[in-house]
Amino acid sequence: MIRWLSVVVLALVLMSGLTQWLRRFGFGRLPGDFAFRAFGREWQIPLASTVLLSMIAALVAKLI
């Protein structure tokens, strides 16, 4: 359980650090990504970017 929790935390830290870099390549702005304002805050739900990054990760894992 601790191992999975540490993996999730590490992934969240990496994704938050790489967000600006990924936006330069168009991730987070794809047609299936949703952004809206609610409760005085900007919320983002990057569905299409998540699917695309998963497919790329699966392809890399399969090639390795």
UniProtKB/TrEMBL annotation:
Name assigned to this protein: DUF2905 domain-containing protein
Pfam families named among the record's database cross-references: DUF2905
**Transmembrane parts of this sequence:** 43-61
Look up and give the organism this protein is from: Variovorax ginsengisoli
InterPro entries in the record, alphabetically?
Answer: DUF2905 (IPR021320)
Q: Could you list this entry's UniProt keywords, alphabetically sorted.
A: Membrane, Transmembrane, Transmembrane helix
